[in-house]
Each structure stands twice: as structure tokens, then as C-alpha cells.
Amino acid sequence: MARSPARLRAEDRIRLASDGGRPSLAAPQRPSGLRLWLRRRRGLLRPAFYALLGIGALGAGTVMVVALEPAGRFSWLSENIAEVAGAAGMTVNEIVVRGQQNTPRELIRAAIGVGRGDPLLAFSPTQAKARLERIAWIESAEVQRHLSGNILIEIHERKPFAIWQRQGEFAVVDRDGRVVSADTLDAFGPLPLLVGDGAHKLGATLYDALSREPEVRRRVQALVLVSERRWNLRLHNGTDVMLPEAHEEAAVKRLGELQRSSALLDRPLVAIDMRLPDRLVVRHNPAPEPIPEPPKRRGGSSRG
Questions:
Q1: Mean pLDDT across the stretch 229-256?
Q2: pLDDT of res. 17
Q3: Terminal CA-CA length for the chain
Q4: pTM of the model
Q5: Could you give the residue ranges of the DSSP H alpha helices within the chain?
Q6: Could you state, in order of their start, the residue ranges of all structural domains in the chain?
Q7: pLDDT tops 80 at residue 65
Q8: Which of 20, 78, 200, 264 is the most interior residue, by most CB within 10 Å?
């Protein structure tokens, strides 16, 4: 009596051929590499499938909500989508930030707003980008969210250009005059000193002119804006160079020529007045007054 196929032992089972159901003695074929790969990743695909299924169900329900209420309940939708995604395993795995040098890390973390293990779909790249670009140090930011759970952030920082002094307070500014830091002023190396109201927004042009005359620039201690209209150069030796309004570049070039020909900037002067285009006035330090000699004692007769 033949045994039913259900009672056959595993080692006695044979594959039925497709030609009429006759038994074949060929050995079972090993699953292909593609099938093995799919089997191993089936467990990884299930959470994403269930998440998408839940999101689709929420989307269908939302269509009905919006149809009944024109304003819609999009905040409700986003919160529930994030909950479904989190329950399905779609959470933040890693946050990568590139380009950070001077921006405080705690400000970046606060702007991102999520951490490892938080629901991935609760993170908005658009909102995070807007928060990051409100940080003084950050000029622009690029934010990407991947379904793998990774968040990639590329920031482009403003470069420290000068130290701005105004009413006894100091701050680091970029070339456009934006204040980027008021702390650790000495952390960025030697920077030009801009003094006065509005100097932080106008100083870059004058500094570029000085850079073309290095012998002048290395003797300058500060760029002082007077009445938000005209510049003075305060030299390290205490001399004030008064530049003409709207003609600073030509005046700086002339200073370079005078320095090379007569070492004008190395002289002990109070001021060099260049405000008039056709003349140059030099003010010397006043000569020290002679020290009066003590009166001579008159000789008197001695008593014996």
C-alpha cells in the first residue's frame, strides 16, 4: 500500500516534474541569491510597508475631513502620520552636520529639534532650514531627510572679518557688517578694528584699499568713521590720518607713495590732514617746554 505524500519523510520527498505529475529523482534546487537576499530583507521591509499602509489610510481619512471642514486639520494629520511612522520603526537613526566651525553646537541642536529615536516624519527639513538660517553665524543651510533614518545638514558659515567697537562695546562682524559674535573676540586671530556708528557696514571697502598698500595697512591700528561720513586712520604710533570724504582709495594710494619716498608714517606726528584734495597738512607734536632751572642760591656772609 502506497503511503500518502503527507506522510513521507523529509529525506524521501521528491520533486514532482511538470510532465504529467510523474516523479523526478532530481535533487531540490538551491534558492537563488536574489531570493535569499529578499528573504533576509523581508523583515526590514515590513515596517516601511505598514507605515505606508497606515499613512495611506490616514490620507484617505483626511480627504473626508477636509471635505467636511475646508480649513482642514493638517496639524492633526502630521501628528498622526508621525505616530504611525514611529510605531512602524521609521525613527531618526543618525544626524550628520557638515561645515560647522564657529557656530555653537547647542544652537544647531536646538534648531534641528529632533534626536535619535524620534519619529522621522515629525522632522520638517523646511522648518529646520529656516531655524538654522536665523542663527547669526549661519549664512545658508541645506537639510535632507532620508527614509533610512538619516538626516544630513550642510551649513555655510559667515566668515569673521573685523571687530566693531561702538560705545565701548565690541563684536565680531562679517564683511557685510552682520554681527556674528560678541564673545571670545580673540579666538579668530588678528582682525581689523572698526570704530564708530556705521563703521561695521562701510569698513570693507576701505580695508580693501589698505590691503593694496601693505606698508600703510600694517601701521594702521583702527579705522575710525567720523559722523558716519568720513574716515580717520589711527596709526600704532598715535598719529591720526584724516582721509577725504568719498576719496579714500586715492588718499591711501598717496599715503603709500609718501611712505616709500619719505617714511611719512614713521614720524612722530599728531595728525596728517588729507581732507583737501590739493594739499596735505602735517601737525607736529608740540615741542616740549624747557624745564626751568632751579634758582641759584645767593652766597651770604658767614658769621664767625
A1: 97
A2: 38
A3: 169
A4: 0.66
A5: 33-68, 74-87, 105-112, 125-132, 199-211, 214-217, 248-262
A6: 44-87, 94-157, 162-284
A7: no
A8: 200
